[in-house]
Amino acid sequence: METLNTYSIGQIAKKYNVSVPTLRYYDEQGLLPFVKRNGAGQRIFTDDDMGYLEVVDCLKRSAIPLRDIKTFMQWCVAGDDTLPERYQFMIDHEAALEQRIKVLQANLAFLRWKKWYYQHANEAGTEQIFFIPGTRQVDPKWRQQYVAHQQTKG
After folding, report:
1. Which of 23, 30, 95, 136 lies at a CB distance of 3.0 to 4.6 Å from 70, suitable for a disulfide?
2. What backbone phi and psi angles, to 5 degrees, belong to 44?
3. Interatomic CA distance for residues 56 and 62, integer angstroms
């Protein structure tokens, strides 16, 4: 029978770049139902736990609420009877993450436009060059020019 390596909470914290208190909090919140304790009551992790930890880490970095991660991890520990729920969970959160990515991409595109705008305003010493005469409104032609320039670059 193969013996599993064991890891302290400090080793796991270092591996996943989180603090020990964060891991303790995750355990207290039910995100780590697979964690065992040694005779001294200290949390110990095994090689078998690494896959679970990778899932928790990914879900957390995907901005999935802790309560949802807790539910998902309970399903994982429960076994094959929960495969349909876990599959649907992934479908739902994939769609939500794709939507957040679209929003972030749109925000990034806008910030890049404004960076271009301010670069050119700085070079000119004024942002008046972009305004519709007699207003403080940016002439739409400048955004169109920027977008056209980006399309020829890419």
Report:
1. 30
2. -130, 145
3. 10
Q: Exposure of 5 by Cβ count < 10 A (0-12 exposed, 13-18 middle, 19+ buried)?
A: exposed
Secondary structure of residue 6 in the 3-state scheme = strand
Partners of residue 138 on adjacent β-strands: 131
Whole-prediction pTM: 0.75
Q: Show the tokens assigned to 134.
A: 């007699």
Q: What would the two tokens of residue 68 be?
A: 């949802």
Distance from C-alpha of 99 to C-alpha of 141, rounded to nearest angstrom? 29
Q: Rounded CA gap, 63 and 32, in Å? A: 17
Strand-pair category, 6-8 with 43-46: antiparallel
Long-range contacts of 111-117 (CB under 8 A, 24+ apart): 112/150, 113/143, 113/146, 113/147, 116/146, 117/142, 117/146
Q: Ramachandran region of residue 45, left (φ > 0), alpha (ψ -120 to 50) or beta? A: beta
pLDDT (tens digit, 9 = 90+) per residue, 102-149?
Answer: 999 999 999 999 999 999 999 999 999 999 999 999 999 999 999 998
Both structure tokens of 120: 């050119």
